[in-house]
Specification:
Blueprint lengths: L9 E4 L5 E3 L7 E6 L6 H12 L1 H6 L2 E7 L3 H11 L5 E3 L4 H6 L2 E6 L2 E6 L2 E5 L5 E5 L9 H9 L2
Parallel strand pairs: 3-4, 4-5
Antiparallel strand pairs: 1-2, 3-8, 6-7, 8-9
Length: 153
Amino acid sequence: MNVGEQIPEILGIDQDGREIKRSDYQGRKLILYSYPKANTSGCTAEACSLQAHKAELEAAGYAIVGVSKDKQALQKKFADAQGLEFPLIADTETTLLQQLGCWGEKVACGHRTIGILRTTYLVNEQGIIEKIFTPKEIKTKIHAEQILEYIRK
């Protein structure tokens, strides 16, 4: 997906078994971020950065939703272990990830694989993407600060 496009209506099922939809956030802004694997160092750093700045992000009008290919039970374990107070979608079939365009080829340690491309979408109150942070832009330990810096401009 690109800036100016509307995210899908059905986003998926979260760690608590709830269906998450775009319309759940109608009238609110959304940080929709994809991450490769729960409970890994980079993904934990990114999630904790967002959780640590959740109040500031909410004050700016944003809700947070994460998505990865991990199963619901692992998403639940991750959220509980890290004290994450936002939905983590278990997109085991990669439906949403493919729709968003953050599922594809990547190179790690010289090996080409297919997987999740760490990406963050800032979505407006109508569900339209306003900004995309690409994998090369995202600094996991300070990602919330990157988002706050962008939205304060």
